[in-house]
Design a protein that fits this description.
With 304 residues, the chain is mainly alpha-helical. The chain has helices at 21-24, 27-44, 46-55, 69-80, 89-118, 125-154, 163-174, 183-208, 216-233, 235-246, 258-269, 278-303; strands at residues 4-6, 13-15. It contains twelve helices and two strands; from the N terminus they run ββαααααααααααα. Pfam families: Mito_carr (PF00153).
Length: 304
């Protein structure tokens, strides 16, 4: 539990720890901290995310087959230009700010409400997992269209000139539904991802930081571990999501959902295809979640 100090009149204890922020701070405070964390998370590791998308392609162009993250980045920069790994970043930042603002704010409020219901005192891991799952629904509703545009711009030899060209051409050819075709798969992946993520983060925090004080090292380490574990577990669903977003390797029809995508993945590459891009996905998520938690806890501490 948080430490306390005496108030100025010597009568009432006052919380002296930033962990007192969640139940008392405004929704806007959590949203501001979450928005900054989300934007930095996606910006710093975006080139690795671009590599992950390409390595998950089931029928890659011979000129876009890579053995490692380093080789992929080197070849992309050398043959397509130094800014190519950042293509699609603008739409990601447009979505990441509001998506993460809702995500962290919803998580903090629900975590404390559910913990009070399920466990009168202390931290409830069930509440953490449930809060993370519900927060994901809001996050993905905002982020899914941005993911579709981003991944279509990341693939090798993408036909789109820019963000709005991609939006316009996808709308005209496939309709608005194309931006939410992978929403079910995204939720199916992200709800267990975030549940595992939050539970792992809170468990490690209990070991490294039992006093729940502001300790940047514990937040960063716990965030990195939580991201790695969650990313590895959910890679098969991420492969299906990428296929639904890009529709690459599918001729004459559009894939309609996770079952259709899973059948196509298996048909084109067998069981190993579900684990394409596992290493770049883990490599992306570890520092990304470390950055997100480090920045979020920093702003939460200072805004208190």
């Amino acid at each position: 539990m948080s430490d306390s100090r005496e108030s100025r009149d010597g009568d009432l204890p006052v919380e002296d720890d930033y962990e007192s922020l969640p139940p008392t701070a405004s929704f806007a405070t959590h949203m501001a901290a979450g928005a900054v964390a989300g934007i930095l998370e996606h910006t710093v590791m975006y080139p690795v995310d671009s590599v992950k998308t390409r390595m998950q392609t089931l029928q890659p162009d011979p000129r876009a087959q890579y053995r490692s993250v380093y080789e992929a980045l080197s070849r992309i920069v050398r043959t397509e230009g130094p800014l190519r790994p950042l293509r699609g970043l603008s739409v990601t930042l447009l979505g990441a700010g509001p998506a993460h603002a809702l995500y962290f704010a919803c998580y903090e409020k629900l975590k404390h409400r559910l913990s009070q219901l399920l466990q009168s005192r202390g931290n409830s891991h069930i509440a953490n997992g449930m809060a993370g799952g519900v927060a994901t629904i809001l996050h993905d509703a905002v982020m899914n269209p941005a993911e579709v545009v981003k991944q279509r711009m990341q693939v090798y030899n993408s036909p789109y000139r820019g963000l709005w060209d991609c939006v316009w051409r996808v709308c005209r050819a496939e309709g608005v539904v194309a931006f939410y075709r992978s929403y079910g798969t995204q939720l199916l992946m992200n709800m267990p991802f975030q549940a595992v993520h939050f539970v792992t983060y809170e468990l490690i925090q209990e070991q490294l930081n039992p006093g729940r004080r502001y300790r940047p090292d514990s937040h960063v380490l716990a965030g990195a571990a939580a991201g790695a574990v969650s990313a590895g577990i959910t890679t098969p669903l991420d492969v299906c999501k990428t296929l639904l977003n890009t529709q690459e390797g599918v001729a004459g029809r559009s894939l309609s959902g996770v079952a259709d995508a899973a059948r196509t993945v298996y048909r084109l590459g067998g069981a190993p295809a579900f684990f394409r891009g596992t290493w770049p996905r883990v490599l992306y998520q570890m520092p990304s979640t470390a950055i997100a938690w480090g920045v979020y806890e920093f702003f939460k501490h200072n805004l208190s």
